[in-house]
Request: fold
Amino acid sequence: MMRLVLTFFLLFLVSCNENRGEYVSVIKVGYIPIADCGQLFLADRHGYFEQEGIKVELVKQAGGATILPALAADHVQVGFSNIASVILACSADLPIQPIAGGPVTDRASVEGGILSLKSGEVNGLADLTGRKVAVNTTKNIVHLFVSELLTKNGVDVSGVEFIGMPFPEMYPALLAGSVDAIASIEPFVTFAEEEGKVRNLGDYFTGTMERVQISTYNVLEGGPLSARQVASFRRAIARATEIAKKDRKELVAAIAAYTSLDIDQVSRVGLPTYDSSLHEESISEVSRLLLERKWIKKAFNPSQIMDWE
Reply:
C-alpha cells in the first residue's frame, strides 16, 4: 500500500513539473521583420504552431537589443537574437537559453558585406585603418566579426571608429560621407550594389569563419514556458526549416508577407541557410572571439546553454 501511495505521489510530481508554465496560453515571440526570421514566418503561415498544440503571437521588435530585455521582463516568452548577444547576456548572468537554431551563413549563402564608395579612398580592407565604419550596434555580432576580419587583414581596429547605426540608415550615410564604410546586410547590400556606386570589400561573416550560426530562438531558463510548449515550438520551427530548404518560392513568399519587401525584392537578395539545430562548434568560436576582444571576462562553455539539445 505504501509503495502504491509513493508511486502516485512521484507521478504527481512529474506531472506538475511537465506542466510548469502551462498558464501561458499564448506564447509571444519577439522577432525582427527580416529574412533571417524566415523559419518563423513559414511556421506561422502554415499553421505549424497550432498543429503542434500551441498558440503563438508574433511581436515585432527593432532588434536583439530590445528583444532580450523583453524576454527577461516576460513581455515575450521566446526571443529571436544573434548568438553574440545571447552569450553576452549569459555572461552578465541573464539566464538565456537557445532552444532552436535560426539563420546560418556560409560561402553558399552570403548575407553581409562591407561596402565603400567607388569614388572614395577606401579600395580594400587595409584602407580602413583610422576610418569610420558603420555597424548596426556596437559590441554586437556584426561589430565582432568586422573587427576580426579587419584584424586578419592587418588593420589596427583600436584606431577604427565604429559608429552604431541602423542598417537602413547606413547607405545614405555612406553617400553623404558621414562614414568611410558600412557593414551592411541583405537586402541592403544588394540594393546598394544595384545602384553601382559601391564596392563590396567582402563578407565579414564568411571572411572570418566558414560557417556561422548567426541567430537562435531563445527562452528564459526557469521562465513561464513548460517543457511541452518548448518542444512544440521547436518541432514547428524544424518543420518550417524543411520547407525553407526545399521550396525557395514559398520561402520568398513568406518573407515578403511578413516584411516590408515585395516578392521581387526578396527574390533578388541573398538569403541565409536555415538550420533548426544548435551548433556547438559555431557557438564556441563566437565565444572565443568575444573573449579575445575582452567583451566577456571569462571563457564561456556553450554546453551550459544547450540543454534542449
